[in-house]
UniProtKB/TrEMBL annotation:
<dbReference type="GO" id="GO:0003677">
    <property type="term" value="F:DNA binding"/>
</dbReference>
<dbReference type="InterPro" id="IPR007125">
    <property type="entry name" value="H2A/H2B/H3"/>
</dbReference>
<dbReference type="GO" id="GO:0005634">
    <property type="term" value="C:nucleus"/>
</dbReference>
<dbReference type="InterPro" id="IPR009072">
    <property type="entry name" value="Histone-fold"/>
</dbReference>
<keyword id="KW-0539">Nucleus</keyword>
<dbReference type="Pfam" id="PF00125">
    <property type="entry name" value="Histone"/>
</dbReference>
<dbReference type="GO" id="GO:0046982">
    <property type="term" value="F:protein heterodimerization activity"/>
</dbReference>
<protein>
    <recommendedName>
        <fullName>Core Histone H2A/H2B/H3 domain-containing protein</fullName>
    </recommendedName>
</protein>
<feature type="domain" description="Core Histone H2A/H2B/H3">
    <location>
        <begin position="90"/>
        <end position="178"/>
    </location>
</feature>
<dbReference type="GO" id="GO:0000786">
    <property type="term" value="C:nucleosome"/>
</dbReference>
<keyword id="KW-0158">Chromosome</keyword>
<feature type="compositionally biased region" description="Basic residues">
    <location>
        <begin position="1"/>
        <end position="22"/>
    </location>
</feature>
<dbReference type="GO" id="GO:0030527">
    <property type="term" value="F:structural constituent of chromatin"/>
</dbReference>
<dbReference type="InterPro" id="IPR000164">
    <property type="entry name" value="Histone_H3/CENP-A"/>
</dbReference>
<keyword id="KW-0544">Nucleosome core</keyword>
<comment type="similarity">
    <text>Belongs to the histone H3 family.</text>
</comment>
<keyword id="KW-0007">Acetylation</keyword>
């Protein structure tokens, strides 16, 4: 079955070429009575003070209309049941993360955490070396992340070869033992 394009119905509020648009008159809405001061006084005397409490003056009409619209919006939002977030199929999020990290060029490990780890390891092995240049830390982090990325790639290849999807410790051990890419790890 071929797809067809359906024309959307145009709303009346759009400007049509060649026609002049007229502004709506500034007359009060029909719920607000247009009474003179004398008429209001007579109504007050005849009906008592209850009439004035229900009466809206033209300058208050717009303000009260806005309040009612806001209340309707709140009721509409509260009255409608909340939609459950759409559940993604298994693997969709993983593929999205893979695409995201393939596009990025920055570090995978946060710089502050890596720096803290480097200083901690340095202090364990040598009390005399306690300063690092910023370029040295960047170079060390670049090399460490490159090593880990290639190790995980080789580990995944080992897992796929074993007809598994899950990466296990034995896959990483085998990848390290086999080596590869000219790097003796």
């Amino acid at each position: 079955m071929a797809r067809t394009k359906h024309q959307a119905a145009r709303s009346q509020s759009r400007k049509q070429p060649g026609k002049k648009t007229t502004r709506p008159s500034s007359s009060p809405p029909p719920s607000v009575p247009s009474l003179s001061l004398c008429d209001l006084f007579l109504v007050f005397v005849l009906n008592g003070s209850s009439f004035l409490s229900n009466l809206r003056l033209p300058d208050q009409a717009d303000h009260l209309g806005e309040q009612q619209q806001q209340e309707k919006k709140l009721v509409h939002k509260v009255g409608r049941p909340q939609r459950k977030p759409r559940r993604l199929r298994p693997g969709t999020r993983a593929l999205r993360e893979i695409r995201f990290y393939q596009k990025t060029t920055g570090f995978m490990i946060p710089v502050s955490s890596f720096t803290r780890l480097v200083r901690q390891v340095t202090q364990e092995f040598s009390q005399e070396v306690n300063r690092w240049q910023a370029e040295g830390l960047v170079a060390l982090q670049e090399a460490a992340e490159d090593f880990l990325v290639h190790l995980f790639e080789d580990g995944m290849l080992c897992a796929v070869h074993a007809k598994r999807v899950t990466l296990m410790k034995k896959d990483l051990d085998l990848a390290r033992r086999i080596g590869g890419r000219g790097q003796p790890w």
